[in-house]
Amino acid sequence: MGSGYVTLEQVARHAGVSLATASRVLNGSTRQVGEELRRRVTASAHELGYLANASAQTLARNTSTLVGLVVHDIADPYFSSIASGVTRSAEEQGLIVVLGTTGRAPRRETQLLATLRSHRARAVVLAGSRTVDDETGGGLAEEITMFTRQGGRVACVSQEGLPADTVVPDNRNGAAALARHLVDLGHRRFAILAGPTDLRTARDRLDGFHSALSAGGIALDPHNVVHGAFTRDGGYESTRRLLATGTDATCLFAVNDVMATGAMAALRDAGLRVPHDLSVAGFDDIPTLRDLTPGLTTVRLPLEWMGEKAARLALEEDPPAEARTVSVAGEVVVRDSTAPPAGA
Amino acid sequence: MGSGYVTLEQVARHAGVSLATASRVLNGSTRQVGEELRRRVTASAHELGYLANASAQTLARNTSTLVGLVVHDIADPYFSSIASGVTRSAEEQGLIVVLGTTGRAPRRETQLLATLRSHRARAVVLAGSRTVDDETGGGLAEEITMFTRQGGRVACVSQEGLPADTVVPDNRNGAAALARHLVDLGHRRFAILAGPTDLRTARDRLDGFHSALSAGGIALDPHNVVHGAFTRDGGYESTRRLLATGTDATCLFAVNDVMATGAMAALRDAGLRVPHDLSVAGFDDIPTLRDLTPGLTTVRLPLEWMGEKAARLALEEDPPAEARTVSVAGEVVVRDSTAPPAGA
DNA sequence: CGGCGGTTGGAAAACTCTTTCCCTGTGATC
DNA sequence: GATCACAGGGAAAGAGTTTTCCAACCGCCG
């Protein structure tokens, strides 16, 4: 009632038992405590309004109830969908999630992991897709190793090649399936908003799309592949640059939905109609963007599920020694932003 | 090197100094340490790969570097925008944010606050808008009091009446300004998707809109006010119910953008054109939804800024004793989803 | 009735820091 | 040269739990 804290010792004294007994009652240890004492302790704890000091527990147990979640940008609906899945898994198990944002700075990822390690976090989910250049990670792999060596677990979403469990979308095949669909529609000349050159996810989608075209005997004009930021504004900007060059493409593939959104805006601003003048397709099937008009043809990824799955992998009871990889297939979702080309 | 942890004691021994000195060097206390020793300690720490144990520090200092953030649903772009602002503020100050989601359960809010308290969190930002019925809070106000009494600070976004700093949008005036604009366009018969009946934010927006209409001598048919969930699907569903009753409205106001999104989808599915057959307006100006077509007329709220501001209030150096309230004005943003009614 | 496995309770060590208190040495002041 | 203030260093006392280890006790078996 005063302004101080109620400690376990006070509870123990109030109940007339030892510290050990009080601890055993209030934090379900393996040891049994007799009916009578158990009752007295819980009554005292309730009466005094006891709330355990989490840091003392973490210190004594050498493990906390924290789960880390590292994303590039929580305002990006791609990441907030994943975050939603991760928090669901974590909260289901009574754990609390700490959210770190990197702003796409690889060093920050390593830094956050160290912080999480210093907090004895149980696990961490790394959701930022990584750059191709492994060395820019600033010792990410090394930091992951330290983290796991100290008893923590790590799971990644959409980042291969790290010493950790991984949930990874099948970007190549998804993009390839999309390409085949678009070719079936009659398209032959494609433009691609390919995102950053060094982003693994972006590159895989480009590659998958490209090789499906090649397999169909269709060439891709290098002038029709433009790189830019992996964001809505990046898509807008890239599209403007593309249009400035006077592209002959009949279909535009943006390697993610948020870029596709920017592209549709740029096309609209340029007076072009989708899909009449140009078909547009994206990748991810971001829930928030499903209400765009025309509806965006895209490749659906179960983002929330992926976050949930990653968290589950990292929080499993007795994990196998080997790092596992869960591959997630994408499903082509056809909506109104794509149509046969005007000439067809 | 081994699999154990490097403790401060090991660093001290390695550097040939006392624990106290090592602590002072590595954690910038008020006390000075001589040049030579300081150098030796930092060198040892670096060489051994020392990483402070955060829970031990929290226990000793009785305060942590954690900042809580409580939202209803992180996948909702309204909350992820706010979250983005909060994390920015927090990370600027070297703090880490723990994210809790309530799924709109008031009790969960209280529960999360207690957890945060047990972690000695510095501050917490409560971003879920609250229900009208104060008593369903499950002791929220009480829990806030305990939290602050223990040295933590609390700030709310969009929740008035709590004993904490508050950043609150001027929902009434924003909605009123929007109403006046729509009346000026020529509308006289309105329908409103009013959200949940017990949600303060929803009610204020409804009231503001309603009173501006009254002031203009315009009545609101109760049949044209439909309540439902504060989500995209809630908006869709409410709109379907509205259409089923055969409304005579020429303009539809949804009390937030995500509901408006659902409304536009429902209208499209019903074969109605926006704004030709019916004008639609929302509230919030969610960034992700700015690319809807037709562009949604709405009231802009600086969501990221609000999150940032709330965090800043809660993290201020020496806060005044009184709880402060920062009111944020909304700005009417006119886009293509609204137009003069067909008859005009 | 002595010994024995199995419970239940408590004392105390451990966990890793921070911070108070005390001691020493130094240069300045009278 | 004695005194003083002060700066820098260390020993040790916390901070609030968990958990190990030991003692006591109970009922049973031989």
UniProtKB/TrEMBL annotation, chains A, B:
<keyword id="KW-0805">Transcription regulation</keyword>
<feature type="domain" description="HTH lacI-type">
    <location>
        <begin position="6"/>
        <end position="61"/>
    </location>
</feature>
<dbReference type="Pfam" id="PF00356">
    <property type="entry name" value="LacI"/>
</dbReference>
<dbReference type="Pfam" id="PF13377">
    <property type="entry name" value="Peripla_BP_3"/>
</dbReference>
<dbReference type="GO" id="GO:0003700">
    <property type="term" value="F:DNA-binding transcription factor activity"/>
</dbReference>
<protein>
    <submittedName>
        <fullName>LacI family transcriptional regulator</fullName>
    </submittedName>
</protein>
<dbReference type="GO" id="GO:0000976">
    <property type="term" value="F:transcription cis-regulatory region binding"/>
</dbReference>
<keyword id="KW-0238">DNA-binding</keyword>
<dbReference type="InterPro" id="IPR000843">
    <property type="entry name" value="HTH_LacI"/>
</dbReference>
<dbReference type="InterPro" id="IPR028082">
    <property type="entry name" value="Peripla_BP_I"/>
</dbReference>
<dbReference type="InterPro" id="IPR010982">
    <property type="entry name" value="Lambda_DNA-bd_dom_sf"/>
</dbReference>
<keyword id="KW-0804">Transcription</keyword>
<dbReference type="InterPro" id="IPR046335">
    <property type="entry name" value="LacI/GalR-like_sensor"/>
</dbReference>
